[in-house]
Amino acid sequence: MTVDIVLNILLLSFLAITGLAIARVRNLFPVAMLTGLYSLLSASLFQLLDAVDVALTEAAVGAGVMTVLFLATFGLTRAREKSVPRSRTAIGLVVTGLTGAALFYASLDMPHFGAADTPVQEHPLRERYLETVREEIDVPNAVTAVLASYRGYDTLGEVTVVLTAGVGVLMLLGVSRRGRHDDDKEP
Amino acid sequence: MREHTVLRVVVKLLIAPILIFALYVQFHGDYSPGGGFQAGVIFAAAIILYALIFGLAEARRAVPPGVLRVIGALGVLLYAGTGVYAMLSGGNFLDYDYLAHDAVHGQHYGLLLVEFGVGLTVSSVITSVFYVFAGRGRRREQS
C-alpha cells in the first residue's frame, strides 16, 4: 500500500513537471516528445489504478501513435510556437486558474478513493455486469464482455466513427491537387 | 536512415514480437486486458515503426494503402455483418446468443468476430492516416 502511495506521488509530480515543461518550451519537437512522456506517465497511473485496458490504450495511442502524428504534422507546418504578448498569457493564466479551482471544488464532492459506498459499488448494474457475466458470456475479462456484447451498439458506433474519421482525413489529405490518390503514386 | 545500423537491427528484431503481441492482445482479449482497439493500435504502431526506420516507400510496398482502405471498410462490415447474421438466425441485431447452438458459445464467437472487426478497422485507419501525413511532408521537401 505504501509503495503504491509513493509511486502515485512520484508519478503525479512527474506529470506536473512534464506539464510545466510543455507549457514553457517554445520549440514544438521537444513538446511532442514531452506529450508522449505525459501519456506514458498517465498510462502508468492507470496501471496503478488497475485499469489495465485503459493503460494499454493510453500507452499505445498517446505515447506511440500520437507522438508520431505530431512529428509528421510538424514536418508540414512550422515547428516553433508563435510568441504571444504578455497581456494574453495573463488571460490564459486566469482562465486556467479558474478552471483548476472549479475542478478542485468539484473533486471535494467525489467519494473518497476506495470507498465502499459509492454508486459504482452499490448500483444494481454492477452486479449485472460483473456477476451475471459469468453465466451469460463466461469470459474472465468483463471489460471486453461489456464493450463488445452488452454495449455492442456503442462499439459498432465507435468503430464507424473511427472509419469515418479515417475516410475524412483521406479525402482531405489523401488526394493531391491533380485529383490522383497521393498514396497510389510511386515515390 | 540508411546509416543507423543499430536502429535498423534493433527495429528488425522488435517488429515481429510487436506484431505477435498485437495478435495476442487481439485474440486473447476475452481473457486478459486488451481487445480490438488496443490490438489495432499496436499493430499499426509496428507498421509505423517500420516506415520510420526503413522508409515510407518500403512500408507502402509491404502494406499497400489501397489494401488498407479495403480492410478498414471490411472491419466495420464484419462487425455489422455479425449483427445481421444474428438477426438472420432468429435473434436481435448483435444478439450473439443466436450465433451458435449454445448461447454462451454464441457469445464467445460474437466477441471474437466483433473484436476482430474493430482491430481491422482501427489498425488500417491509423496506418492510412500516418501514410498521408508522412507522405505529404516528403513530397513538399522534393518540390
Structural account:
The complex is a heterodimer of chains A (187) and B (143). Helix content of chain A is 74%, strand content 0%. With 187 residues, chain A is mostly helical. Chain A has 2 domains: 1-82, NADH-ubiquinone/plastoquinone oxidoreductase chain 6, subunit NuoJ (Four Helix Bundle (Hemerythrin (Met), subunit A)); 116-187, no CATH class. The mean pLDDT of chain A is 85. Chain B has 143 residues and is mostly helical. In chain B, 79% of the residues lie in helices and 0% in strands. Chain B has 5 helices and no strands. Chain B has helices at 5-27, 36-54, 56-62, 65-88, 103-142. In chain B, α1 (5-27) packs antiparallel against α2 and α2 packs parallel to α5. Chain B is elongated and about 60 Å long. Classes of the chains: A mainly alpha (187), B mainly alpha (143).
The overall pLDDT of chain B, averaged over residues, is 88
Largest sheet of chain B: none
Stretches of chain A where pLDDT is under 50 for at least 5 consecutive residues are none
Instruction: Note the run of SSEs of chain A as H and E.
Output: HHHHHHHHH
Q: What is the mean pLDDT of chain A?
A: 85
Strand content of chain A: under 5%
Task: Work out the helix count of chain B.
Answer: 5
Tally of domains of chain B: 1
Distance N to C terminus of chain B: 21 Å
The CATH class of the largest domain in chain A is identified as: Mainly Alpha
Oligomer: heterodimer
Structural class by helix and strand composition of chain B: mainly alpha
N/C terminus separation of chain A: 56 Å
